[in-house]
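I hope you will forgive my troubling you with a question about protein structure. I am sending you one protein, given as its amino acid sequence and as whole-number tokens for its backbone shapes. Thank you for your consideration; the sequence and its tokens are set out here:
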Amino acid sequence: LSVPLLLLTILFPMLALCYINPAATSVHQNATKSSASRAYIVLVEPPRSNAGEDAHRQWHESFLPTSLADESSESRLLHSYTEVFSGFAVRLTDAELDTMAKKPGFVRAFPDRTLQLMTTHTPEFLGLKNGTGFWSRAGYGKGVIIGLLDTGLYATHPSFDDHGVSPPPTRWKGSCKAARCNNKLIGAKSLIQGDEFGDEEGHGTHTSSTAAGNFVTGASYHGAGVGKGTAAGIAPGAHIAMYKVCANRRCKQSAVLAGLEEAIKDGVDVLSLSLGGDTIASFDEDPIAIGAFSAVSKGILVVCAAGNSGPRPGSITNEAPWLLTVAAGSLDRSFAASLHLGNGKSIDGEALTQKVSPSSKSHPLLYSEERRYCNYKSGSGITGKILVCEGTRSKTQQSNIHRIVGAGAAGVVLFNDEISGYSTMVQDYNSSVSGPRRALFLFPWSKHHRGRHPKAGYIGTRPQHPRRVAAKHGLWKGHFQHHIRNIHGDATRQWCRCAYQKHPS
């Protein structure tokens, strides 16, 4: 009984593991006819006989239009599926799809959509301690094979060292076709044609090490002592099989289904996807949900996330009942950073760019309603000043801040809205992130000194000990109510700073 229980322990703290359910439509109703080809995922009835893989492919090829007779089917037939469902991915024009839809055995077609990519303290926060208790009794996940459909991973990362990890079970049928494997990393395949196995994004390295990374002592963010401790996944004794289905931050559904197909054949126990669309579809209109149903029917636990949006009604987008839907969670620690003002007061916030010995030099403070989102231009009087801005959580703002800090700004103080709270991301500039209530004090103070650039002090950091009851700030307001805890979270690669609150009954 211990291993199944550990599987649930593995999965609940994992952040943004899967966020799928993009909308799909039957054939292409009401679409404008086009002579250009595009990729479709086609479902067909299975062959009448219990045919092998080659026979299945031939059956799938029989649906291809005769216009493909003079060209290699390999260039148009992208993937052939037998485990997730009977079907294939193919490039077709609208006219070719119309012709295919009239053939006996055709079921339906979905446009091949593009999905988006969605802590040293986590085990301790969950009550897992090395050498004792439930973690030890469950063997740290020994023998469990976790398959991830993601951006690949860095096989040389210390989280994937196999010290203390037993060989994979004999039932394992997978292989390593694109990376150096060991007893920890037992599967590595790329389903992206012409793409090498690796992890340019770092996303798959993050998710797989969170799930089953081995013990790594002395870990901290950039060696600066932030989050220092022993990093480990929730199942450090488990095996990892990575199926690369994303490249250049693009994850095509057809490649995701091909990865799912391979994972089922290889014999994984758990499947985790860190991908997602931004629209809701009914179960029968989501090809990945359909494929996941096949995986579940074969005894594989498929885990997906509640989503990163909200809070609002219907913000849980992954509601298929056969999926284990997981929301991002938070921990009971933070990384405090305070802005020390010229009047002797300070504004508490958080930051990930902490220095062991921060400078005590003061800088002018600059707040502009016109540039309140940090949309300053380089050379616009920002050199040597600490900018006060309203956070937007957008990539555009992050890029803009990097640019203006590089142009000479001394630092940035971001005030998030109520939903975002103190949530901060990995930043390579001097910063502090605070909540909206702090802004109620600083903004009027800044306006009072407008035109005189008040002496704003410096951004200093200090260690923060874990709280007995975690604070109620974070990026995601909880989706779940009543006795299930409200969930918040924010994460960086290899570790996260988190917090939670219990919802009143």
Q: What stands out?
A: The CA atoms of residues 37 and 93 lie 4 Å apart. The radius of gyration is 25 Å.
